[in-house]
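Internal QA ticket QA-208
Title: Verify multi-chain structure generation after dependency bump
Assignee: T.L.

Test input:
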Amino acid sequence: MFRTMSIFTSLIKKETLHLLRDWRTLTVVLIMPVVLLLLFGFAISTEVNDIRVVAVVDRHTDVSRLIMERLRVNSYFTFKGEVPFNEVEGMLRRGETDAAVVLRTDGGEIRSQIITDASNTNMAQTSVAYIESVIGGGGDVPVITSTLYNPQLKSAYNFVPGIMGMIFILICAMMTSVSIVSEKETGTMDLLLVSPVRPRTIILGKLVPYFILSCIILSAMLLLSYTVLGLPFSASALNVVWITVLYITFALSLGMLVSTLVSTRVTALIVSGVLFMLPVVMLSGMIFPIENMPLPLQWLSCVIPARWYIAAVRTLMIQQLPASYVLQEVAILLCMTVGVLALAVRNFNSKGLFNNAEHP
Amino acid sequence: MNRETVISVRNLTKKFGGFTAVDNISFDVGKGEIFGFLGANGAGKTTAMRMLCGLSYPTSGTGTVAGFDITRKAEEIKRHIGYMSQKFSLYDQLTVRENLRLFSTVYGMSDAAIKSKTGEIFAQLGMENMADTLVRDIPVGWKQKLAFSAATMHDPDVVFLDEPTGGVDPVTRRKFWELIYRASSGGMTVFVTTHYLDEAEYCNRVLIMVDGCVRALDTPAALKERFGMQTMDEVFRIVAKDAGRAD
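Actual output:
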Protein backbone atom coordinates (compact mmCIF):
# COMPACT_ATOMS: atom_id res chain seq x y z
CA MET A 1 0.00 0.00 0.00
CA PHE A 2 2.73 2.40 1.03
CA ARG A 3 4.68 1.52 -2.06
CA THR A 4 1.70 1.95 -4.34
CA MET A 5 1.18 5.40 -2.86
CA SER A 6 4.78 6.47 -3.34
CA ILE A 7 4.77 5.13 -6.89
CA PHE A 8 1.55 7.00 -7.54
CA THR A 9 2.89 10.28 -6.19
CA SER A 10 6.12 9.93 -8.13
CA LEU A 11 4.12 9.38 -11.33
CA ILE A 12 2.07 12.49 -10.60
CA LYS A 13 5.21 14.43 -9.85
CA LYS A 14 6.69 13.28 -13.15
CA GLU A 15 3.62 14.39 -15.07
CA THR A 16 3.51 17.73 -13.26
CA LEU A 17 7.17 18.42 -14.00
CA HIS A 18 6.57 17.54 -17.63
CA LEU A 19 3.65 19.94 -17.75
CA LEU A 20 5.50 22.74 -15.98
CA ARG A 21 8.60 22.41 -18.12
CA ASP A 22 6.63 22.45 -21.34
CA TRP A 23 6.03 26.12 -20.71
CA ARG A 24 4.76 26.90 -24.19
CA THR A 25 1.82 24.54 -23.92
CA LEU A 26 1.21 25.57 -20.36
CA THR A 27 1.13 29.24 -21.26
CA VAL A 28 -1.34 28.59 -24.05
CA VAL A 29 -3.53 26.52 -21.79
CA LEU A 30 -3.53 29.05 -18.97
CA ILE A 31 -3.71 32.21 -21.06
CA MET A 32 -6.19 31.04 -23.65
CA PRO A 33 -9.27 30.81 -21.41
CA VAL A 34 -8.54 34.24 -20.03
CA VAL A 35 -7.99 35.78 -23.45
CA LEU A 36 -11.12 34.11 -24.83
CA LEU A 37 -13.18 35.35 -21.92
CA LEU A 38 -11.95 38.91 -22.28
CA LEU A 39 -12.20 38.80 -26.05
CA PHE A 40 -15.77 37.56 -26.09
CA GLY A 41 -16.61 39.59 -23.04
CA PHE A 42 -15.45 42.95 -24.30
CA ALA A 43 -14.16 43.07 -27.83
CA ILE A 44 -16.47 40.77 -29.73
CA SER A 45 -20.12 41.31 -29.10
CA THR A 46 -23.32 40.44 -30.83
CA GLU A 47 -24.96 43.59 -29.59
CA VAL A 48 -25.70 46.11 -32.31
CA ASN A 49 -24.71 49.66 -31.53
CA ASP A 50 -24.69 52.92 -33.47
CA ILE A 51 -27.16 51.99 -36.14
CA ARG A 52 -27.09 54.78 -38.67
CA VAL A 53 -30.57 55.74 -39.62
CA VAL A 54 -32.17 58.37 -41.83
CA ALA A 55 -35.77 59.46 -41.94
CA VAL A 56 -38.04 60.22 -44.88
CA VAL A 57 -41.00 62.30 -43.82
CA ASP A 58 -43.58 63.67 -46.21
CA ARG A 59 -45.46 65.84 -43.73
CA HIS A 60 -44.30 66.81 -40.29
CA THR A 61 -46.68 66.08 -37.49
CA ASP A 62 -46.29 65.78 -33.73
CA VAL A 63 -45.97 62.05 -34.10
CA SER A 64 -43.23 62.20 -36.74
CA ARG A 65 -41.32 64.79 -34.73
CA LEU A 66 -41.60 62.58 -31.66
CA ILE A 67 -40.27 59.57 -33.54
CA MET A 68 -37.31 61.52 -34.93
CA GLU A 69 -36.55 62.92 -31.51
CA ARG A 70 -36.46 59.41 -30.11
CA LEU A 71 -34.11 58.24 -32.83
CA ARG A 72 -31.89 61.20 -32.12
CA VAL A 73 -31.54 60.66 -28.38
CA ASN A 74 -31.38 56.87 -28.37
CA SER A 75 -27.79 55.74 -27.90
CA TYR A 76 -28.28 52.70 -30.14
CA PHE A 77 -28.88 54.97 -33.14
CA THR A 78 -26.90 57.57 -34.95
CA PHE A 79 -29.56 59.73 -36.49
CA LYS A 80 -28.29 61.15 -39.76
CA GLY A 81 -31.18 63.47 -40.46
CA GLU A 82 -33.95 63.76 -42.94
CA VAL A 83 -33.49 62.91 -46.60
CA PRO A 84 -35.74 62.84 -49.67
CA PHE A 85 -37.10 59.38 -50.54
CA ASN A 86 -35.19 58.99 -53.81
CA GLU A 87 -31.84 59.30 -52.03
CA VAL A 88 -32.44 56.42 -49.64
CA GLU A 89 -31.50 53.65 -52.03
CA GLY A 90 -28.26 55.38 -53.02
CA MET A 91 -27.29 55.91 -49.39
CA LEU A 92 -27.92 52.28 -48.52
CA ARG A 93 -25.91 51.21 -51.52
CA ARG A 94 -22.97 53.42 -50.67
CA GLY A 95 -23.15 52.24 -47.10
CA GLU A 96 -23.83 55.70 -45.73
CA THR A 97 -26.75 54.50 -43.67
CA ASP A 98 -27.89 51.20 -42.24
CA ALA A 99 -31.60 51.80 -42.24
CA ALA A 100 -34.23 54.29 -43.28
CA VAL A 101 -37.55 55.07 -41.63
CA VAL A 102 -40.23 56.24 -44.01
CA LEU A 103 -43.16 58.03 -42.41
CA ARG A 104 -46.13 58.82 -44.63
CA THR A 105 -49.23 60.62 -43.58
CA ASP A 106 -52.19 59.06 -45.29
CA GLY A 107 -55.60 60.49 -44.50
CA GLY A 108 -54.47 61.89 -41.20
CA GLU A 109 -52.97 58.58 -40.08
CA ILE A 110 -49.27 57.88 -40.03
CA ARG A 111 -47.97 54.85 -41.88
CA SER A 112 -44.44 53.73 -41.44
CA GLN A 113 -41.98 51.66 -43.42
CA ILE A 114 -38.53 50.47 -42.42
CA ILE A 115 -35.94 49.92 -45.14
CA THR A 116 -32.80 48.20 -44.04
CA ASP A 117 -29.57 46.87 -45.47
CA ALA A 118 -29.83 43.14 -44.87
CA SER A 119 -26.42 42.19 -46.22
CA ASN A 120 -25.66 41.61 -42.55
CA THR A 121 -28.71 39.69 -41.40
CA ASN A 122 -27.97 39.83 -37.74
CA MET A 123 -27.57 43.57 -37.80
CA ALA A 124 -30.63 44.08 -40.02
CA GLN A 125 -32.88 42.03 -37.77
CA THR A 126 -31.68 43.77 -34.69
CA SER A 127 -32.04 47.24 -36.15
CA VAL A 128 -35.56 46.50 -37.38
CA ALA A 129 -36.46 45.33 -33.92
CA TYR A 130 -34.98 48.45 -32.35
CA ILE A 131 -36.68 50.82 -34.79
CA GLU A 132 -40.01 49.05 -34.42
CA SER A 133 -39.85 49.50 -30.71
CA VAL A 134 -39.10 53.21 -31.15
CA ILE A 135 -41.93 53.75 -33.63
CA GLY A 136 -44.33 51.41 -31.88
CA GLY A 137 -43.90 53.39 -28.70
CA GLY A 138 -46.16 56.02 -30.23
CA GLY A 139 -48.93 53.57 -31.08
CA ASP A 140 -52.13 52.79 -29.26
CA VAL A 141 -51.13 49.46 -27.75
CA PRO A 142 -48.26 49.88 -25.37
CA VAL A 143 -45.78 47.00 -25.44
CA ILE A 144 -43.71 46.53 -22.37
CA THR A 145 -40.70 44.32 -22.91
CA SER A 146 -38.71 43.15 -19.97
CA THR A 147 -35.55 41.17 -20.53
CA LEU A 148 -35.04 38.97 -17.53
CA TYR A 149 -31.73 37.64 -16.16
CA ASN A 150 -29.59 39.69 -18.50
CA PRO A 151 -31.39 43.04 -18.67
CA GLN A 152 -28.65 44.78 -20.61
CA LEU A 153 -28.39 41.85 -23.03
CA LYS A 154 -24.65 41.63 -22.39
CA SER A 155 -23.22 39.05 -24.75
CA ALA A 156 -20.36 38.29 -22.36
CA TYR A 157 -22.83 36.45 -20.15
CA ASN A 158 -23.71 34.19 -22.97
CA PHE A 159 -20.16 33.27 -23.82
CA VAL A 160 -18.85 32.37 -20.39
CA PRO A 161 -20.59 28.96 -20.27
CA GLY A 162 -19.66 28.31 -23.90
CA ILE A 163 -15.99 29.00 -23.37
CA MET A 164 -15.94 26.77 -20.31
CA GLY A 165 -17.62 24.01 -22.31
CA MET A 166 -14.88 24.29 -24.90
CA ILE A 167 -11.83 24.75 -22.72
CA PHE A 168 -12.36 21.64 -20.61
CA ILE A 169 -12.76 19.45 -23.66
CA LEU A 170 -9.53 20.94 -24.92
CA ILE A 171 -7.54 20.40 -21.75
CA CYS A 172 -9.00 17.15 -20.51
CA ALA A 173 -9.84 15.27 -23.68
CA MET A 174 -7.23 16.63 -26.05
CA MET A 175 -4.24 17.18 -23.79
CA THR A 176 -4.68 13.96 -21.83
CA SER A 177 -5.06 11.77 -24.87
CA VAL A 178 -2.14 13.44 -26.62
CA SER A 179 0.05 13.07 -23.56
CA ILE A 180 -0.79 9.39 -23.06
CA VAL A 181 -0.34 8.61 -26.73
CA SER A 182 2.95 10.49 -26.89
CA GLU A 183 4.28 8.25 -24.14
CA LYS A 184 3.37 5.32 -26.33
CA GLU A 185 5.22 6.93 -29.21
CA THR A 186 8.40 7.76 -27.32
CA GLY A 187 8.43 4.35 -25.68
CA THR A 188 8.32 5.52 -22.07
CA MET A 189 4.92 3.87 -21.73
CA ASP A 190 6.60 0.53 -22.42
CA LEU A 191 9.08 1.17 -19.63
CA LEU A 192 6.22 1.73 -17.20
CA LEU A 193 4.31 -1.27 -18.50
CA VAL A 194 7.22 -3.70 -18.03
CA SER A 195 7.62 -2.38 -14.50
CA PRO A 196 5.53 -3.71 -11.61
CA VAL A 197 3.27 -0.63 -11.68
CA ARG A 198 -0.34 -1.49 -12.33
CA PRO A 199 -1.75 -0.05 -15.55
CA ARG A 200 -4.55 1.68 -13.66
CA THR A 201 -1.99 3.43 -11.48
CA ILE A 202 -0.26 4.64 -14.63
CA ILE A 203 -3.52 5.99 -16.04
CA LEU A 204 -4.57 7.67 -12.79
CA GLY A 205 -1.14 9.23 -12.57
CA LYS A 206 -1.83 10.70 -15.99
CA LEU A 207 -5.36 11.92 -15.26
CA VAL A 208 -4.91 13.52 -11.84
CA PRO A 209 -2.54 16.34 -12.92
CA TYR A 210 -4.89 17.35 -15.73
CA PHE A 211 -7.80 17.29 -13.32
CA ILE A 212 -5.94 19.66 -11.01
CA LEU A 213 -4.98 21.89 -13.93
CA SER A 214 -8.64 22.04 -14.98
CA CYS A 215 -9.68 23.01 -11.48
CA ILE A 216 -7.15 25.84 -11.45
CA ILE A 217 -8.49 27.11 -14.76
CA LEU A 218 -12.06 26.78 -13.52
CA SER A 219 -11.28 28.95 -10.50
CA ALA A 220 -9.57 31.54 -12.67
CA MET A 221 -12.51 31.67 -15.07
CA LEU A 222 -15.08 31.97 -12.32
CA LEU A 223 -13.05 34.68 -10.65
CA LEU A 224 -12.83 36.63 -13.89
CA SER A 225 -16.52 36.16 -14.67
CA TYR A 226 -17.66 37.38 -11.29
CA THR A 227 -15.26 40.30 -11.08
CA VAL A 228 -14.12 41.69 -14.42
CA LEU A 229 -17.13 40.60 -16.44
CA GLY A 230 -19.46 41.49 -13.61
CA LEU A 231 -21.66 38.42 -13.61
CA PRO A 232 -23.97 38.57 -10.62
CA PHE A 233 -22.55 36.38 -7.86
CA SER A 234 -24.86 34.12 -5.95
CA ALA A 235 -25.02 30.81 -4.17
CA SER A 236 -25.52 29.05 -7.49
CA ALA A 237 -21.81 29.55 -8.18
CA LEU A 238 -21.23 26.46 -6.05
CA ASN A 239 -23.57 24.47 -8.28
CA VAL A 240 -21.60 25.67 -11.28
CA VAL A 241 -18.49 24.20 -9.67
CA TRP A 242 -20.16 20.83 -9.09
CA ILE A 243 -21.50 20.46 -12.56
CA THR A 244 -18.18 21.56 -14.02
CA VAL A 245 -16.36 18.90 -12.03
CA LEU A 246 -18.77 16.38 -13.54
CA TYR A 247 -18.06 17.77 -16.99
CA ILE A 248 -14.29 17.61 -16.38
CA THR A 249 -14.65 13.98 -15.34
CA PHE A 250 -16.51 13.33 -18.54
CA ALA A 251 -13.82 15.01 -20.63
CA LEU A 252 -11.05 13.04 -18.87
CA SER A 253 -12.87 9.78 -19.58
CA LEU A 254 -13.14 10.84 -23.19
CA GLY A 255 -9.40 11.54 -23.31
CA MET A 256 -8.68 8.14 -21.84
CA LEU A 257 -11.02 6.45 -24.33
CA VAL A 258 -9.24 8.15 -27.23
CA SER A 259 -5.85 7.10 -25.95
CA THR A 260 -6.93 3.45 -25.87
CA LEU A 261 -8.06 3.70 -29.49
CA VAL A 262 -5.31 5.57 -31.31
CA SER A 263 -1.56 5.15 -31.37
CA THR A 264 -0.11 8.37 -32.74
CA ARG A 265 -0.15 11.92 -31.44
CA VAL A 266 -1.43 13.23 -34.75
CA THR A 267 -4.44 10.95 -34.75
CA ALA A 268 -5.17 11.85 -31.16
CA LEU A 269 -5.05 15.54 -32.08
CA ILE A 270 -7.28 15.09 -35.10
CA VAL A 271 -9.81 12.96 -33.25
CA SER A 272 -10.08 15.37 -30.34
CA GLY A 273 -9.95 18.43 -32.57
CA VAL A 274 -12.37 17.45 -35.29
CA LEU A 275 -14.61 15.01 -33.49
CA PHE A 276 -14.87 16.86 -30.18
CA MET A 277 -13.93 20.50 -30.54
CA LEU A 278 -15.79 21.29 -33.73
CA PRO A 279 -19.18 20.02 -32.51
CA VAL A 280 -18.69 21.92 -29.26
CA VAL A 281 -18.21 25.15 -31.18
CA MET A 282 -20.84 24.56 -33.85
CA LEU A 283 -23.60 22.52 -32.27
CA SER A 284 -23.53 23.11 -28.55
CA GLY A 285 -25.45 26.36 -28.67
CA MET A 286 -22.33 28.22 -27.62
CA ILE A 287 -22.49 30.53 -30.65
CA PHE A 288 -25.40 29.40 -32.80
CA PRO A 289 -28.72 28.99 -31.04
CA ILE A 290 -29.87 25.38 -31.18
CA GLU A 291 -33.48 26.45 -31.70
CA ASN A 292 -32.57 28.00 -35.04
CA MET A 293 -30.95 24.87 -36.42
CA PRO A 294 -32.64 22.51 -38.86
CA LEU A 295 -34.27 19.62 -37.05
CA PRO A 296 -31.65 16.95 -37.89
CA LEU A 297 -28.93 19.17 -36.44
CA GLN A 298 -31.01 19.76 -33.36
CA TRP A 299 -31.21 16.01 -32.86
CA LEU A 300 -27.48 15.73 -33.45
CA SER A 301 -26.82 18.38 -30.84
CA CYS A 302 -28.49 16.16 -28.24
CA VAL A 303 -25.55 13.76 -28.27
CA ILE A 304 -23.08 16.56 -27.64
CA PRO A 305 -22.37 16.75 -23.93
CA ALA A 306 -21.29 20.38 -24.14
CA ARG A 307 -24.84 21.28 -25.16
CA TRP A 308 -26.20 20.03 -21.84
CA TYR A 309 -23.33 21.42 -19.86
CA ILE A 310 -23.63 24.87 -21.41
CA ALA A 311 -27.40 24.91 -20.98
CA ALA A 312 -27.04 23.97 -17.32
CA VAL A 313 -24.34 26.53 -16.63
CA ARG A 314 -26.45 29.21 -18.30
CA THR A 315 -29.34 28.37 -16.06
CA LEU A 316 -27.18 28.37 -12.97
CA MET A 317 -24.86 31.23 -13.75
CA ILE A 318 -27.04 33.72 -15.59
CA GLN A 319 -30.57 32.88 -14.48
CA GLN A 320 -29.19 31.93 -11.07
CA LEU A 321 -31.84 29.32 -10.59
CA PRO A 322 -31.40 26.60 -8.00
CA ALA A 323 -29.95 23.21 -8.93
CA SER A 324 -33.40 21.63 -9.27
CA TYR A 325 -33.79 23.43 -12.61
CA VAL A 326 -30.88 21.59 -14.21
CA LEU A 327 -31.70 18.06 -13.10
CA GLN A 328 -32.34 16.92 -16.66
CA GLU A 329 -29.02 18.25 -17.91
CA VAL A 330 -27.13 16.80 -14.96
CA ALA A 331 -28.81 13.42 -15.44
CA ILE A 332 -27.90 13.33 -19.13
CA LEU A 333 -24.31 14.39 -18.43
CA LEU A 334 -24.03 11.79 -15.70
CA CYS A 335 -25.26 9.05 -18.02
CA MET A 336 -22.82 10.13 -20.72
CA THR A 337 -19.94 10.22 -18.25
CA VAL A 338 -20.74 6.76 -16.90
CA GLY A 339 -21.09 5.44 -20.45
CA VAL A 340 -17.81 6.85 -21.74
CA LEU A 341 -15.93 5.92 -18.60
CA ALA A 342 -17.22 2.34 -18.75
CA LEU A 343 -16.21 2.10 -22.40
CA ALA A 344 -12.77 3.53 -21.67
CA VAL A 345 -12.20 1.17 -18.74
CA ARG A 346 -13.40 -1.82 -20.75
CA ASN A 347 -11.10 -0.93 -23.65
CA PHE A 348 -8.28 -0.33 -21.26
CA ASN A 349 -8.74 -3.68 -19.56
CA SER A 350 -9.04 -5.71 -22.74
CA LYS A 351 -6.33 -4.01 -24.77
CA GLY A 352 -4.57 -2.16 -22.01
CA LEU A 353 -2.04 0.25 -23.33
CA PHE A 354 -0.58 -2.42 -25.50
CA ASN A 355 -2.40 -1.71 -28.71
CA ASN A 356 0.55 0.30 -29.94
CA ALA A 357 2.82 -2.57 -29.08
CA GLU A 358 0.88 -5.13 -31.04
CA HIS A 359 2.86 -4.65 -34.18
CA PRO A 360 5.28 -7.28 -35.34
CA MET B 1 25.33 -26.38 -20.40
CA ASN B 2 25.62 -26.52 -16.66
CA ARG B 3 24.29 -23.06 -15.92
CA GLU B 4 21.06 -22.47 -14.08
CA THR B 5 18.28 -21.72 -16.60
CA VAL B 6 16.74 -18.26 -16.36
CA ILE B 7 14.67 -18.12 -19.54
CA SER B 8 13.00 -21.17 -21.00
CA VAL B 9 10.74 -21.01 -24.04
CA ARG B 10 8.77 -23.84 -25.66
CA ASN B 11 6.84 -23.60 -28.94
CA LEU B 12 6.12 -19.93 -28.49
CA THR B 13 3.88 -18.51 -31.25
CA LYS B 14 2.37 -15.11 -31.85
CA LYS B 15 -0.09 -14.39 -34.65
CA PHE B 16 -1.50 -11.04 -35.71
CA GLY B 17 -4.58 -11.97 -37.69
CA GLY B 18 -3.29 -14.20 -40.49
CA PHE B 19 0.30 -13.12 -39.99
CA THR B 20 2.54 -15.33 -37.87
CA ALA B 21 5.14 -12.99 -36.36
CA VAL B 22 6.74 -15.60 -34.15
CA ASP B 23 6.43 -19.17 -35.30
CA ASN B 24 6.88 -21.95 -32.78
CA ILE B 25 10.22 -21.00 -31.23
CA SER B 26 11.98 -22.82 -28.37
CA PHE B 27 15.23 -22.03 -26.52
CA ASP B 28 16.83 -21.73 -23.08
CA VAL B 29 19.03 -19.02 -21.63
CA GLY B 30 21.35 -19.60 -18.67
CA LYS B 31 22.10 -17.35 -15.73
CA GLY B 32 24.66 -14.63 -16.42
CA GLU B 33 24.65 -15.37 -20.12
CA ILE B 34 24.77 -12.69 -22.81
CA PHE B 35 22.21 -14.01 -25.24
CA GLY B 36 22.11 -12.39 -28.67
CA PHE B 37 18.85 -12.40 -30.57
CA LEU B 38 19.59 -11.74 -34.25
CA GLY B 39 17.39 -11.19 -37.22
CA ALA B 40 16.52 -8.80 -40.01
CA ASN B 41 13.86 -6.15 -39.45
CA GLY B 42 10.53 -7.92 -39.30
CA ALA B 43 11.99 -11.29 -38.38
CA GLY B 44 10.02 -11.28 -35.12
CA LYS B 45 12.76 -10.42 -32.61
CA THR B 46 10.92 -7.60 -30.91
CA THR B 47 7.63 -9.50 -30.79
CA ALA B 48 9.31 -12.50 -29.16
CA MET B 49 11.00 -10.26 -26.63
CA ARG B 50 7.79 -8.43 -25.80
CA MET B 51 6.12 -11.73 -24.97
CA LEU B 52 8.94 -12.55 -22.56
CA CYS B 53 8.53 -9.14 -20.89
CA GLY B 54 4.80 -9.52 -20.45
CA LEU B 55 4.04 -6.73 -22.91
CA SER B 56 2.35 -9.05 -25.33
CA TYR B 57 0.35 -12.25 -24.81
CA PRO B 58 1.41 -15.36 -26.76
CA THR B 59 -1.06 -16.96 -29.14
CA SER B 60 0.22 -20.39 -28.09
CA GLY B 61 3.21 -22.00 -26.44
CA THR B 62 4.75 -21.57 -23.00
CA GLY B 63 7.72 -19.99 -21.40
CA THR B 64 9.22 -19.06 -18.05
CA VAL B 65 11.32 -16.05 -17.14
CA ALA B 66 13.15 -15.97 -13.81
CA GLY B 67 11.12 -19.02 -12.83
CA PHE B 68 7.69 -17.52 -13.55
CA ASP B 69 5.24 -18.53 -16.26
CA ILE B 70 4.90 -15.80 -18.91
CA THR B 71 1.19 -16.40 -19.44
CA ARG B 72 0.10 -16.56 -15.82
CA LYS B 73 2.71 -14.79 -13.70
CA ALA B 74 3.48 -11.76 -15.83
CA GLU B 75 3.16 -9.50 -12.77
CA GLU B 76 5.82 -11.50 -10.91
CA ILE B 77 8.11 -11.47 -13.91
CA LYS B 78 7.93 -7.68 -14.02
CA ARG B 79 9.62 -7.44 -10.61
CA HIS B 80 12.57 -9.50 -11.79
CA ILE B 81 13.38 -8.02 -15.17
CA GLY B 82 14.67 -4.78 -16.61
CA TYR B 83 13.84 -3.44 -20.05
CA MET B 84 15.50 -0.95 -22.34
CA SER B 85 13.62 0.04 -25.47
CA GLN B 86 15.19 0.69 -28.84
CA LYS B 87 14.68 4.44 -28.56
CA PHE B 88 16.58 4.76 -25.25
CA SER B 89 13.24 5.97 -23.92
CA LEU B 90 13.47 8.24 -20.92
CA TYR B 91 11.47 11.29 -19.93
CA ASP B 92 12.93 14.17 -21.93
CA GLN B 93 11.59 16.89 -19.69
CA LEU B 94 13.03 15.36 -16.53
CA THR B 95 16.62 15.65 -15.40
CA VAL B 96 18.96 12.68 -15.32
CA ARG B 97 18.53 12.38 -11.56
CA GLU B 98 14.74 12.68 -11.74
CA ASN B 99 14.56 9.94 -14.35
CA LEU B 100 16.64 7.53 -12.29
CA ARG B 101 14.61 8.38 -9.22
CA LEU B 102 11.31 7.81 -11.00
CA PHE B 103 12.24 4.42 -12.40
CA SER B 104 13.74 3.15 -9.17
CA THR B 105 10.66 4.27 -7.21
CA VAL B 106 8.51 2.45 -9.71
CA TYR B 107 10.44 -0.73 -8.93
CA GLY B 108 9.79 -0.23 -5.25
CA MET B 109 13.31 0.73 -4.15
CA SER B 110 13.70 2.52 -0.83
CA ASP B 111 14.88 6.12 -0.63
CA ALA B 112 18.24 5.12 0.85
CA ALA B 113 18.82 2.46 -1.81
CA ILE B 114 17.92 4.93 -4.54
CA LYS B 115 20.34 7.49 -3.19
CA SER B 116 23.30 5.15 -2.96
CA LYS B 117 22.56 3.47 -6.29
CA THR B 118 22.22 6.82 -8.07
CA GLY B 119 25.55 7.97 -6.68
CA GLU B 120 27.13 4.70 -7.78
CA ILE B 121 25.80 5.10 -11.32
CA PHE B 122 26.98 8.70 -11.63
CA ALA B 123 30.44 7.73 -10.44
CA GLN B 124 30.59 4.68 -12.71
CA LEU B 125 29.51 6.57 -15.82
CA GLY B 126 31.39 9.74 -14.87
CA MET B 127 28.33 11.90 -15.33
CA GLU B 128 28.04 13.69 -11.99
CA ASN B 129 28.12 17.03 -13.78
CA MET B 130 25.08 16.06 -15.85
CA ALA B 131 22.94 14.91 -12.93
CA ASP B 132 20.69 17.94 -13.08
CA THR B 133 20.59 18.34 -16.85
CA LEU B 134 17.36 17.61 -18.69
CA VAL B 135 17.59 14.32 -20.54
CA ARG B 136 16.61 15.98 -23.83
CA ASP B 137 19.81 18.06 -23.61
CA ILE B 138 22.30 15.23 -23.17
CA PRO B 139 24.06 13.55 -26.11
CA VAL B 140 22.62 10.32 -27.46
CA GLY B 141 25.54 8.19 -26.26
CA TRP B 142 24.95 9.30 -22.68
CA LYS B 143 21.25 8.81 -23.05
CA GLN B 144 21.90 5.23 -24.09
CA LYS B 145 24.08 4.52 -21.05
CA LEU B 146 21.56 6.21 -18.84
CA ALA B 147 18.69 4.15 -20.25
CA PHE B 148 20.69 1.02 -19.53
CA SER B 149 21.40 2.16 -15.98
CA ALA B 150 17.72 2.97 -15.43
CA ALA B 151 16.82 -0.51 -16.65
CA THR B 152 19.28 -2.24 -14.30
CA MET B 153 19.09 -0.08 -11.16
CA HIS B 154 16.92 -2.56 -9.31
CA ASP B 155 19.32 -5.46 -10.01
CA PRO B 156 16.99 -7.55 -12.14
CA ASP B 157 17.65 -11.23 -12.87
CA VAL B 158 17.34 -10.57 -16.58
CA VAL B 159 17.69 -7.37 -18.56
CA PHE B 160 16.07 -7.19 -21.99
CA LEU B 161 17.76 -4.83 -24.42
CA ASP B 162 15.84 -4.11 -27.60
CA GLU B 163 18.37 -2.98 -30.21
CA PRO B 164 20.22 -0.94 -27.63
CA THR B 165 22.84 0.39 -30.03
CA GLY B 166 20.75 1.58 -32.96
CA GLY B 167 21.99 4.86 -34.46
CA VAL B 168 25.07 5.06 -32.25
CA ASP B 169 28.67 5.35 -33.50
CA PRO B 170 31.04 2.34 -33.22
CA VAL B 171 33.17 3.79 -30.40
CA THR B 172 30.11 4.50 -28.27
CA ARG B 173 28.76 1.05 -29.09
CA ARG B 174 31.98 -0.54 -27.95
CA LYS B 175 31.79 1.37 -24.66
CA PHE B 176 28.21 0.33 -24.23
CA TRP B 177 29.18 -3.31 -24.52
CA GLU B 178 31.57 -2.80 -21.62
CA LEU B 179 28.52 -1.93 -19.53
CA ILE B 180 26.83 -5.10 -20.69
CA TYR B 181 29.88 -7.19 -19.77
CA ARG B 182 30.04 -5.62 -16.35
CA ALA B 183 26.38 -6.42 -15.69
CA SER B 184 26.80 -9.97 -16.94
CA SER B 185 29.87 -10.63 -14.81
CA GLY B 186 27.77 -9.62 -11.80
CA GLY B 187 25.41 -12.50 -12.59
CA MET B 188 22.77 -10.59 -14.55
CA THR B 189 21.44 -12.33 -17.63
CA VAL B 190 21.47 -10.10 -20.69
CA PHE B 191 19.00 -10.74 -23.49
CA VAL B 192 19.88 -8.47 -26.39
CA THR B 193 18.37 -8.06 -29.84
CA THR B 194 20.52 -6.50 -32.50
CA HIS B 195 21.05 -6.35 -36.20
CA TYR B 196 24.68 -5.26 -35.92
CA LEU B 197 26.46 -8.48 -36.67
CA ASP B 198 29.81 -7.41 -35.26
CA GLU B 199 27.99 -7.20 -31.92
CA ALA B 200 26.94 -10.82 -32.28
CA GLU B 201 30.60 -11.69 -31.72
CA TYR B 202 30.41 -10.26 -28.20
CA CYS B 203 27.56 -12.57 -27.17
CA ASN B 204 28.02 -15.87 -25.37
CA ARG B 205 25.43 -17.48 -27.58
CA VAL B 206 23.47 -16.29 -30.58
CA LEU B 207 20.04 -17.14 -31.89
CA ILE B 208 19.30 -16.25 -35.49
CA MET B 209 15.65 -15.71 -36.35
CA VAL B 210 14.40 -15.80 -39.91
CA ASP B 211 10.74 -15.18 -40.79
CA GLY B 212 9.62 -15.87 -37.23
CA CYS B 213 11.48 -19.18 -36.85
CA VAL B 214 14.71 -20.14 -35.10
CA ARG B 215 17.23 -20.86 -37.86
CA ALA B 216 20.44 -21.22 -35.84
CA LEU B 217 21.39 -21.23 -32.15
CA ASP B 218 24.94 -21.65 -30.84
CA THR B 219 28.08 -19.82 -29.73
CA PRO B 220 29.51 -17.44 -32.36
CA ALA B 221 32.63 -19.59 -32.65
CA ALA B 222 30.67 -22.80 -33.25
CA LEU B 223 28.43 -21.11 -35.81
CA LYS B 224 31.41 -19.76 -37.76
CA GLU B 225 33.00 -23.16 -37.72
CA ARG B 226 29.83 -24.95 -38.81
CA PHE B 227 29.37 -22.66 -41.82
CA GLY B 228 33.12 -22.39 -42.48
CA MET B 229 33.10 -18.60 -42.24
CA GLN B 230 35.34 -15.96 -40.69
CA THR B 231 32.74 -13.54 -39.36
CA MET B 232 29.20 -13.60 -38.01
CA ASP B 233 28.24 -11.30 -40.86
CA GLU B 234 28.99 -14.05 -43.39
CA VAL B 235 27.23 -16.63 -41.24
CA PHE B 236 24.16 -14.47 -41.10
CA ARG B 237 24.12 -14.00 -44.88
CA ILE B 238 24.04 -17.75 -45.40
CA VAL B 239 21.46 -18.45 -42.72
CA ALA B 240 19.14 -15.64 -43.72
CA LYS B 241 19.59 -15.78 -47.48
CA ASP B 242 16.12 -17.17 -48.14
CA ALA B 243 14.35 -14.78 -45.79
CA GLY B 244 11.02 -13.72 -47.18
CA ARG B 245 10.19 -10.80 -44.92
CA ALA B 246 13.41 -8.81 -44.80
CA ASP B 247 13.11 -5.32 -46.23
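Spot checks passed. The mean pLDDT of chain B is 91.
Status: verified.
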